[in-house]
Amino acid sequence: MSKILIIGVGNAGRNVCKKSKDDGFSDAEFVTFGGYQNDDGDDIPHYNFVKRSLCPGYPPEVYKAFAEKNIDDIREFLEKYV
Q1: Is the pLDDT of residue 36 over 60?
Q2: Are 51 and 34 in contact (CB under 8 A)?
Q3: Which of 12, 27, 50, 80 could form a disulfide with 35 if both were Cys (CB 3.0 to 4.6 A apart)?
């Protein structure tokens, strides 16, 4: 059986994960990444690799630099699912 991992990034990605899970998307694991705080009681794991919030509207280079700066943490997380 295949393993499906759905990753939400930022607030919109988190909302999509929550909606998909609430709608009964089965046989999948959900996680979110971002610079915001996770809601209390949320049953979707949240990984906050950012010390400050990255607001929408920054140029793509800002997000690329963020990913490159946090690549070891992101890789370590993803290796759990390989």
Answers
A1: no
A2: no
A3: 50
Say how far apart CA 65 and CA 80 lie, in whole Å.
24
User: Which residues is 4 bridged to in the sheet?
Assistant: 28
Q: Are 30 and 17 in contact (CB under 8 A)?
A: yes
Q: Max CA-CA distance within the chain?
A: 39
CB neighbours (10 Å) of residue 7?
Answer: 16
| Residue 55 near residue 42 (C-beta atoms within 8 A) | no
Place 2 in a pLDDT band, splitting at 50, 70 and 90.
low
In the predicted model, what is the mean pLDDT of the chain?
75
Alpha helices in 31-70 (DSSP H): 60-69
- Alpha-carbon distance of 1 to 26, in angstroms, equals 13
